[in-house]
Amino acid sequence: MRGRQRRAREAADPAPESFTIDEEVSHLTRIRSEPSQRILGAFHAGRKRTLSTFELLSGREFGRSGAGGFSAADCAYVGRKHLPTKGPWCVDDMTSEAYVSQFSSDGSLLVAGFRGSRIRVYDADNGWKVHKDISCQSLQWTVSDIALSPDQQFLAYSSLSPIVHIVNVQSGGKESQANVTEIHDGLNFSNADDDDDYPFGIFSVKFSKDGQEVVVGNNDRSIHVYDLRANKVSVRIRAHAADVNAVTFADESGNVLYSGSDDNLCKVWDRRCLAREKPAGVLTGHLDGITFIDSRGDGRYFISNCKDQTIKLWDVRKMSASIKGRQQRLFDWDYRWMSFPSEARHYRHPNDQSLATYRGHSVLRTLIRCYFSPMYSTGQRYIYTGSSDESVYIYDVVTGDIVERLSWHGSIIRDCTWHPYSPTLVSSSWDGYLARWEVSGDEGDPWLLTDNDQRTSPPRQSYTRHLLL
């Protein structure tokens, strides 16, 4: 043991490595989030200089942007210069930890899941009023994940059990108590051959883009796809050698899946050719368990958050048919209660296939999530993530810089969600708060959170009736 740790210390780079990124993805990101050449030429005749929002808007009024007005990239450039960093304002103050949060695809609804057995749906267009207050069915410990169907009609929620429940969030009643005021349909992902004494739990759940399928990742090392029309599990893949903490559809086609596991690997699965449960490819580079995956939506790029304290950007065209080299695990530690070994912080996997690595945030104690920023308002120029150091980090995809760090909460921020069109970001923390960050706001608003409101945990209540049911 001492010899292995000594070799690890010798291999570790004592100085932080310089940030590098693949030129192709850097170029694609820039052209979607920076002024078009037509705009630059009209204003500066080829000279390179940062344009202010005032210059762009005034130039458009005087016709300098051309008859076509602003392009999508011009709009994204303006939007990304005005980040949601003011506040925060309180969306809700709960008596249990906030685990997950998610805006609907049009931004009209915000859904948040809490420890205990609560999910709340908020009307983001109407003063953040509670649209639906859901008491969950047969919850095991916490709401582990939530997913809204593309038509925003149904909500799927999971916990540490093999059942995903479906709720109609557009039904008439505001209160939805499982199988009392409303039926919460259960999708059973277990197999008849499963050992009932050790049922698996679900960590990740996603709807397909057509709303006809639900995919889950679980602690049975598997990926399962449920066909809602046929009302049965249609695909079972023994995908990894450890818990599958994250799974998502790559794009609108639904044919390709990305998964991430505690075996340190990201894998790509093509459902059109799943012979012998073999992945289409494997991506190596992380040094510890993957906690979350977010697809860019183009079937090519995705990001992963990891217990090695990094986010990595991947291109599926660079994947390998098999694992490259022996999986690295240089240190024996448990992220649930230990600090990350300082000597491992800047170690790089010798077979790292990632395009870029983002460092600064902290991934401890829980499966913290990361995302690309919205296409409409930022051109996906940023990556944002929760952190165990009670902050939200926003990274520039191209430079790797931390452009903003949002700090107010008194406990871990496990999840956060950015409005798809407006400069609004909501952080969900283990202190029990859902907090809203804006580009501007009324500092006299009574919902503005102050230092006096801070706490390290929510007001305590008994969880006896919620746990291990």
From TrEMBL:
GO biological process: proteasome-mediated ubiquitin-dependent protein catabolic process
Gene3D superfamilies, alphabetized: YVTN repeat-like/Quinoprotein amine dehydrogenase
Repeat among keywords: yes
This protein's GO CC annotations: Cul4-RING E3 ubiquitin ligase complex
Annotated PROSITE patterns: WD_REPEATS_2, WD_REPEATS_REGION
Keyword Repeat among UniProt keywords: yes
Keywords on record: Repeat, WD repeat
InterPro entries registered for this protein in UniProt: DCAF, WD40/YVTN_repeat-like_dom_sf, WD40_repeat_dom_sf, WD40_rpt
Start-end of each WD repeat: 202-236, 237-270, 283-324, 406-440
Record family assignment: Belongs to the WD repeat LEC14B family.
Name of this protein: Uncharacterized protein
Lineage of origin: Eukaryota, Viridiplantae, Streptophyta, Embryophyta, Tracheophyta
Gene: LOC102713357
